[in-house]
Amino acid sequence: MAVASRTSLWLGADHLLFVDSNGYTESYKRFYFRDIQAFVVQKNQTATIINIVLTILFVLVAASALSVQLAGLKYFLFSLAGGIAFIMLINLLRGQTCRCFLRTAVQIEQLPPLNRVRRAQKIFARIRPIIVAAQGGEISPQMVSSLMQEKVQSYTTEPVTTPHSPNIPPRLDS
Amino acid sequence: MNSLVQCPKCQALLLEGIFNQPELSPCPSCGVPLQVEIFPALFRKINPGQSGEALMVEGESCCFFHPQKKALLPCGSCGRFLCALCDCELNGQHYCPACLEAGKTKGKIKSLENQRTLYDSIALSLAIYPLLIFYFTLITAPATLFIAIRFWKSPISLVRRSKIRFVVAIILALLQIAGWIALFIAIGTRHSSIPHAKN
Questions:
Q1: B129 contacts A40? CB cut-off 8 A
Q2: Which member of A46, A127, B86, B119 has the greatest number of CB atoms within 10 A?
């Protein structure tokens, strides 16, 4: 029975397909390569916290296993401690955790499948050339620098008031 | 939406030193390790939408939805003439808003489909979970068969293209039905083999 949603990311011909499934329905979001503006990876401490919790659990279970006299219970606790150690090892091997965001002109979407830094970097290395090709080629760091300055300038000098438009209702307060 | 990239944690604007680095670099404001990959689309200017050109010459083709505007091209689905305002481009195809809406609701345009019901998973769950309380399978086994046969041709997951779940569900449902039939036959024959008491 599905109790939690499962998300995955798929590479399409001209888009990334984000699939959110609860086991019985799937919802899809498509991010076309031509529209993707940026990926932002933010490293977080989830892996460390998980390992601290698992270490505490491991120590407690192992200590209990050493102290109990009943052979059956001793074996059970040792195997439980082994299971916890195995999960810890997997967590360690998978590396640091992160939150990954995809940005387009109209949205910032979190991508839960990319929750490990190493995996996110691997995926970026794979899709970066495809996205760049879809957007007409890479931009040089110098160009990025000048375009960013332009953007920052326009951002800071943007007028706060909205321009007059026939679609906007007239402002009533003075 | 802000046209500049922001730190997801502190919302500070990120400037060029942090972009497209091979490894994580600290956010200049909050210090959280970040990796920011930017693409040319970030600097692309968004063109304002077109409103359609007014008809100037008598007898010129006009838009189906706006008779006072000049037609630019036909809808790729229904063939109606469209002005620049009504032209909705999708993957190189041009549609009118009505066909786009119909394509989305009826699932005709695959790239607009944003949800699917996984009937194969429903059938498989209906075949497996009631086994925990076997009596339920008297009802759920025929229901599983019905769902599997009724929705056999309906589209399954976009990313998983095998019908194996349907097949397993049908096999399990048939086994359950066969089990019930065997049980009823066994009960019936046992009942008929018991000698009736003579009055």
A1: no
A2: B86
